[in-house]
Structures
1.
Amino acid sequence: MKKHLIITWIFFISTLIPGQAQDDVTLFNYWKYYSDAENSLYKQLSSVAFEQLESRKAEINKLKTIADWQERQSVVRRKLQEIMGPFPEKTPLNARVTGVLKRDGYRVEKLIYESIPGYYVTAALFIPDNIKGRAPAILNAIGHSPQSFRRDIYQNFIINLVKKGFIVLAYDQIGQGERVQYYDEKTRKSKFRPNTEHSFPGGQCFISGYSPSRYFIWDGIRAIDYLLTRKEVDPDRIGMTGLSGGGTSTAFIGAIDDRILATAPTCFITNYKYLFLSEGPQDAEQNIYRFLNEGLDHADLIELRAPKPTLIVGTTRDFFSIQGLRETFFEAKSAYRAFGAEDFLQKSEENYVHGFTKKNNEATYAFFQKYLNNPGDSTEEEVDIIPEKELQVTKTGQLVTSLNGETMYSLNKTIVEKQASGLEKSRTNIEEHLSNVPDAAIRLSGFSYPKEFNPEIFSGRYVNEHYTLEKYLIQGSGDYMLPLALFMPGKNNKNEAILLLDERGKDFAVNSDSLARQLVANGYTVLLGDLPGIGEMGPGYFRGDAYIDNVSYNLWFAGILTGKSIVGIRAEDIIRMVHFLKTNFAENKSITAISVGMLGSELLHAAAFEEDIQRVCLLQPFLSYADIAMTHYYKPSFIHSIVAGAIEKYDLPDLMAVLTPRKVLVINPLSGDGLMADNSDTKKCFNFPLEVYSNKNVSGNLEIFNELENNMVLKQLISWLE
């Protein structure tokens, strides 16, 4: 049975000496110029994004002729296929109508279809009365709203379109309306808000190496398939629109599905330059895996449609920057101009916040009336709103309690299980597999070995009876400095230096926990440092719309977009700390690195790339990336320490195996839920590195202790060090 985390999480605190003096290990309260260090991680990820965007801009500036833009479209189309897909095969929709509502001038068919077998989509088809022949149809993707299309503002927009002669298919995006994935039986609603409903399982999709947008896009593509089964729909006059998250789906689907003639993405289109400068990357499905790394931006989603009719709708006070919208529109105009279809790209703006406005709605009605050949009055009229309960599609009001179908988590879990099986198969050829792991880790994490090491900045010395404390700043991997605290014992100085990395920061490690002091008391030189996002280096101002248990998923998504992971950045900085320690204080000493908590992931990466880390100790690391991806309610704080897409090629046990024959100690590993892993899970997870160490006849160099009692942890660590 698993033990609760709090039992083990403070295993060193009990050994603190009452009344013990505090050590000042802070640096940025003195170095005022660097006092913005807590925002270094986001700014570093942003700087990578800006470089990639500048490279893209240089490519766009070369495009002049229609042939140039057609070649660009081919390149973008291929890239999107690679990083969005692969999509599932098309299977029977098994669409069924669960009820019909009659209203003045139209009817509503409430329906369910399966975009993937067992993956149900709730929707409503609004059909005008007295249709002559086939009518134009509009797919309406709904934004982040618990009520989805049942909400009054969405109904107003939909019914106005219907009153003007359009068939409208509105559907619940996953995590919204009747498609809640984390349903709470007591409250009868989701445990999360819609953004979290997307980003929490979306994080697990990224672990597998693809964007959760795949499911959002596929639901829309299958919705088009359904529309084409209806005799009332003209297949040559299909449009798509959506607000906010619906604008996301409209932009993505409209870029890749040629059956959609006209699109009007609303309150989404901007560009990544201004997104990073303002709100930052948004929730999971809005971020395509390695999108910026592939040289893409929002404008590509519009330019790929040229010369098809497109209306970009925005508001001047939206969190999706209006400046970004205008620049995207200006760039995309060049593409449409080259195609001789400049008038087919239009823009509508209103002085408002994020949301619908009458002016923008009427511009959208007029746009579809013109380009879907359905002329009429574009004036928005007052309509009667249908009570939410009447638009309920399922018997219980939720798919999870009505049909208990697939979710993003369950679909992805199946993928992870296949990836884990493939990884196990690769491991059977030990030498070949291990030879490929470091290159894969470098490529997928975005790691780059430091090219130079600048001189440190000495920042003060404190001397007392038992040890000397010195503080330093060293250059980080970006435009920031790393704060270091070096403790040197006054006596019994051993020929061993230790780098100690604590996920709670060096101040906590020194003044709230006793591990650092105990190591110094035992004669070890100990260097403590804060990595970007940790201690003095974080967490910073950036949170985003997917802020779960005090963890910014959006910060992690910045790495997803750029291909420069948080793990890769931190691994580079660990190597900088090791270089500082070896160069200045441990030239003839062996170096051991110890991590406490989730930073075991970063340390394993750094050790795989740096042989000067001669011994590695992981205290309470999580078991593996795959374990987190397969845990329904995983611990959100683990997310920053995961390399997206890694489990196709390697996982943490593989990095451990790469360290053979170096000595590795693992104490009290944690499962994906943040609780102590049991013996069977630990043994299964670490079977491969144990096998590798055994085959190299150094089985004693890899030691794993599970469920070690609190009072034994320090003793085991000291024994291992000696």
2.
Amino acid sequence: MSSLPETPGIQAKASPVAHGRQPDLFKSIVESLAVPLYRVDRSGALTYANARMLELLGRPLHEAIGLRASELYPAALALAYTEDDQQVMDSGLPLSRLQDYREPATGTFRQVWVSKSPVRDQQGHVVGLQGLFDDISEHLQSLHAFQLANRVLDSTQQALMITDTEGRIVRVNAAFESITGWSAPEVLGKTPQLLSSGQHSREFYQRMWEALLAQGHWEGELLNRRRDGSLFTEHISISCLRDDSDHPSHYVALFSDISDRKAAQEEIQHLAQHDALTGLPNRLLLTDRLQQAISQAERSGQRVALLFMDLDRFKEVNDVHGHQMGDLLLKQAAERIRHTLRGSDTVARLGGDEFVALLPDLHSPEEALVVGENLRQALYQPFEIGGHSLQLSASIGIASFPDDSADADDLMRCADLAMYEAKAAGRNRVQYFREELDVRARSAAQMESELRRALHERELFLEFQPQIDLATGAVASIEALVRWQHPRQGRVEPLTFIRHAEESRLIRPIGEQILDLACSARAKLRRQLPENVPIAINLSARQLSDPRFLDAFQETIERHALPGTQVELELTESALIEEMDAARNVLQRLRLLGVKVAVDDFGTGYSNLALLHRLPLSRIKIDRSFVMDLDSRRSALAIFRAICAMAHSLGLHVVAEGVEQVEQLEVIRSLGCDAAQGYALARPMDLPALQRWLKKRARSAPPKP
């Protein structure tokens, strides 16, 4: 190993005593340095390395001496090192810079501060250089981490505020300045008191500090004040920082401005509890207030009343004047109801044209009747909207706690039942709940449940009654009549259950099942009936208005391979009038399929002659009541003859229902009737019996009635 060369710029002039020891001293100092130190000659070959440098090289000195950078480091680093070395030796000037370094022994990359100085001979010529470097990777990492932390704190959307243990602000970030309007220079050294809104009590802050000191953390909402005086709601989290001795050193608060979120939440909550059109409470808020009113009434011994209101014939306003006019009317109605009630009362809109008034703190049920009558009169006054004067009425039902029910939901149901009773009694009236209404409603619910079971278990069946052509005696049509074989009650006639089916909307699935049974029966009669004899099936208004009806009907007749000409649909006057526009479109499409349409029970309803020329009809069926009166009332004869004449002038056939006496046949024929149906000709029968009846008629020519 060569001896350590002289350090440039230092001339060794030792005393005689120290002369022998000086090289060893310098060598010891250099060898003990914690930083790597090395020398290279003019060609770049290594001439010396201290112990730390050899450790990094991973080689002993005798192996490292003479090696160049290209033999010690990766090509890119070696080129960079060599270029720096050449610059120092060519310029004769020292160089210092931050540089990447990879330890040859471990391959670890580090960031080092390199200092390189030229080495000169006695004549001052540069013969090489010496270098040393300091690993500052950890320092740089700490610096980068500190800078990153500052950038993070300044870029975060959460406001930061750090105080010392005396409550003085020592640090805030950009979000703090943006949210509060205070700049950092304005708040440093001050306390968070400058943000106080004065909206929180001393006890609130005391509880906050107690939690913070006990648990080291507190989180919640504060209402604070900005620099401009405006208030804002913040969600804040405060943490206590402790020093190495576990003593509090700082408090760190992070908060966000949630004013917009709070406003949005309040708006959402308002929308969730109020009707969007009128601004009145909805069912949710009404139910909550009703439960509170009942609880208070239980304690005070007073009464609570519910008034369920439905605007009569409101649908006509929408149909005639449009929904915009209807909405304006609902708003005016809501205002009238609100002004009629007390300040402590609640009026809610449940939807459509249904309103409910909640009257707490009543002493007797009669007080609710007085309010109900006042509301009825208020809603009966004409509404002036957009140049139109609209006069409606209201049906109002009343139920009270504890007289009618002690349960909020049940009380609402009782008031609803009373309202429907008022509507059924003629509208524009106030009706108090009676126990029999509940009995009737429970009976209807029971009937609906049993009808659902009947559908599932296929307890419904058909009987068939022929209609006879009075001129030829031939079968003109076969009417399908629905029956119900109840497992406990036995045979149930349609008058008992069809009304419940209509009200519960089960008429649609029942109608689909009847249509399937009737088409199946007509397919089985294919060989016994002429092609022009249809099966007549009763249709309800709800089926007619069902947008799925036509598709379901066509699918059914196709499944049974029936042409449309072998099906006749019978609808009542009321059904056709109720759904006039829908009926016209549906019946026109049915006519394209060859389906015949008859008006059933003609003369018992509105006797609206518009039906006869506006709708594509085939036949009208005169109700049995006219047939029964033919013998006793001259007016019945005149009406019967007029109906036949009018129908024939429009190209329609006439069928008389309920002909129970043979003598009546000649009378109705003389009046112009085309066909008849009734016990005088054939009773309703099941399919096998009908097939036998048809077979018997086929064996002998049927006599003219």
3.
Amino acid sequence: MITLADISRRLDTVRRKERSVILVTGLARTILAVVAAALAYFLLDWLFEMPYAGRIVTLLLAFGAICYVFFLHVLKPLRRIADDDEIALRVEARNPDLRGRLISTVQLSRSQARGEYAGSPDLLRALESDTLAAAQPLDFLRIISKQTMRKIFALAGAALLIQIVCVVRFPEYFEALALRLVHPRYQYPTKTRIEEVLPPSTYVAYGDPVHVTVRIDPASVVPESNGMLTFRLDDGTETPVELVPSPDDPTVFEGKLAKALGNMTVIAEVGDARSIPTKIEVRQRPEVREGSIRYIYPAYTGRKTSEPQKFGGLKALVGSSAEITITASKALASAQILRADGQKLALVQAGNDKREWKLPKPFLIDRSTNFSVEMVDEDGLVNPRPPVVYPVDAQADEAPSVKLRWPSRDTIVTAKARKEILFDVSDDFGVRTVWLVYKITKKGQTEESAKIKRKELTGLIDEKRPKTGGAETLPCQITWALEQESLNVEDQIVFWLEADDDCATNDVLAAPSAPAAPDAEGAGTGEPKAEAKSEIAYPRSTDVRFTVVSEETYREERLENISEFIEQTRGLREQQENVKRRVLKILEESGSK
């Protein structure tokens, strides 16, 4: 006959067995979760080539799912301790013949043990005796179901076996799976193996073509068909580009994207191999955002330095210079101005942010040409090609003009005459000087052999006249005392006027003078021959010729001229009288009508 102590031991045994079943079943479920998570992670990573951050996140999610299964099916059930009452109720549910006696006996005996009043002792003894008699042949362990445990355990064993077979059959894939958690760029094994993908650099300039070279491991399968490049912009736009084998090396494939329009990721696919994504940053080239120009004019113009103007083409008087400052769109490493004639003018940094640059010396405007700005930023990128070309319009300082008003034609003079010469001279920025240029041909001498003489007339020009822009005519008058030239009858004087301003850039070089002839003075004496040299050809007036005559001839010529003038005057008077008569006749006829 069993006792109450035996009933208590049976309940403890049920409790221990049940905890063992829970532990085994929970561990089997956990194994299933581990296998499922490993296979799911492998499939996701293999199919979608997850980035390294995605792999880590997926691994953490899988580990979290495994921990949740372990907590739900192991820790949580084990933490819930089944007491004797619960087990007794489950035994009675399994054995209806007990009719509540087992739970009553367990509870009443526990009350008696605490010294509480539980009822009549005789009744309690009778209940205990009936309960022990009914419970003696019963197997309390039958309330524990092991069917679920067996199924879960079988499934876990099968899953674990599949996992082991996969690892044994495809060890390189699972090795790659593990290594990809340590080495971000490690790849799964393929028949074709990509050794490297070579973009031009980690960045390219906006709008430039992107050349990509893919090198295949020659020890792997090298496909004969073309591959594919996929350029994926940050906004999700994808551009496919064909990868073509190099004619020189079949293991090298090349592809080119026509224009880089934004930051991108490039993926190469050759055969069954797929490269990991390679990021390429697209950076803007430097450009001139704004700038300023200040013109410095030649001193002789009397003009002040201009106010700053917007940067662009240059337009100023020849001999002017321009102070140039530019502001770039990004920080620069260097900048220079390239003239069309090949000159290079280096710019220096003018600000702390490396964006503002200026010319240390003003840009000399000496001719019409053009220029461009070359900038190199800190990434080594230069401004767009072809560069913006800025014109240089060098406006010429007009040469002075001199016009002889009197005498206006050839005439005769005496050896002691004092000739009045009237002329006009003009220039856009003022006349520097005027020369009276002449040559005297003596009787019996050729004009070509006559020596040219020059007299500067600067003192005869009104120097107080202001120099202003725009042509300004200066009327001038001089008296030429011919008696100072020691003239004789039949001598001839050819003269003209020459003028010059303060600008040297508008001077014109005359044809070089011929070297001395062999029979000229100094030839054959051991002295070097005169070398040809260029001289400035100044603007000049028309030539006028004076022929020297005697006093009598001059008076006769003058008298003859006076007679001709009188005859001309008489003819004019007759013409005037005829006009008057015709006018009166017309008036009379008009009045009669």
